[in-house]
Design a protein that fits this description.
2 copies of one chain form a homodimer. By secondary structure, chain A is mainly alpha-helical. Chain A is 69% helix and 6% strand. Chain A contains 7 helices and 3 strands. Chain A has a 3-stranded antiparallel beta sheet. In chain A, a hairpin with an 8-residue loop joins strand 2 and strand 3. The longest helix of chain A has 29 residues. The radius of gyration of chain A is 21 Å and the shape is elongated. In chain A, 24% of the residues are buried. Chains A and B meet through helix 1, helix 5, helix 6 and helix 7 of A and helix 1, helix 5, helix 6 and helix 7 of B. The first copy, chain A, binds a DNA duplex through helix 4.
Chain lengths: 170, 170
Amino acid sequence: MQLAEAKARFIADWGRFGTNWGINRTMAQIHALLLVSPDPLSAEDVMDQLSISRGNANMNLRELIDWGLVQKVLIPGERKEFFSAEKDIWKVARQIVKERKKRELDQMIPVLRELGEVEGDRRDKAVRTFTETIQNIRKFSEQADRTLDTMIKADEHWFLGSLVKLFGGR
Amino acid sequence: MQLAEAKARFIADWGRFGTNWGINRTMAQIHALLLVSPDPLSAEDVMDQLSISRGNANMNLRELIDWGLVQKVLIPGERKEFFSAEKDIWKVARQIVKERKKRELDQMIPVLRELGEVEGDRRDKAVRTFTETIQNIRKFSEQADRTLDTMIKADEHWFLGSLVKLFGGR
DNA sequence: ATTATCTTTCAATAAATTTTGAAAGTTCAG
DNA sequence: CTGAACTTTCAAAATTTATTGAAAGATAAT
């Protein structure tokens, strides 16, 4: 397979997988394009290579920057802005975990704490089931929260090494 | 807060979070409802409590069964089918990891292996960047695949205990 | 200060996904 | 076998989400 075809396939597939992860297709495609581009690209390059509109490119590039996956790059002598993606995949994974934790887990835990304190007769089966389930979800979430915090802080080598040792991967 | 209100909030919130995870709102809401119901519910119960149509209830219940999160329960003397959700949240998490791994990681790895073998002049920067990035993503994915396999097999106690020890949780 | 270049916004439009509900299918008691 | 009880299907409709592109907003060179 030649580069052009492989690149097109990667962009299409990465876009498809992105949609399973709550990321929209175009955002994932732009990410894929930048991941495999040796040099930073302009908004125009992105528009051309993916056949998308200016507004769409702008919006999704901004979102990628929000997620900490893409950076604006200034090229001396150029008026335009250029964009480049973090290529170290471990850093990418850590960044995604960090953002999702912030957007999801950190929002859910306070809700679960509140719901876990529902009033009612503890002899009532419905109350008991509700309370127990919510408390279990809360405990699980709090444990996950602590685990992910440690992961986020850990450096790549330590993280990989520990997991390999722990889980016996090779 | 009283049970009815807490239950409604939990269903709404769980539904909202579900959409971040590629799960549709209704499916997550049905899951939430079954999670906090002490006894199995019929399709009719689900339709009534969530105000959704018969077709919608049927379709999403089937999908929850596909995911291994809900089971059909036969109640002696009843003609209808009843449904109940796995309440052990560690089992739920493991089941979700297992299914997503199957649907996503296991599909992506063969693609990455193929794309990693793109032909071209290794002195060409574009070819080099492409190959290196894909290989890194592939290595990461293969490591994640092994790690998740071990997690899926591990029992809850071992898994929790190991993570606590490893990451210093309390 | 003017103008050319580039970026952002956002209302309109298009596309994708979800939901409905009526009809068809199934199962089982009598 | 018949019909009542229940489940499944699926085309149409509703809803949600993503995309476009033109206009407005910046920015910087001259």
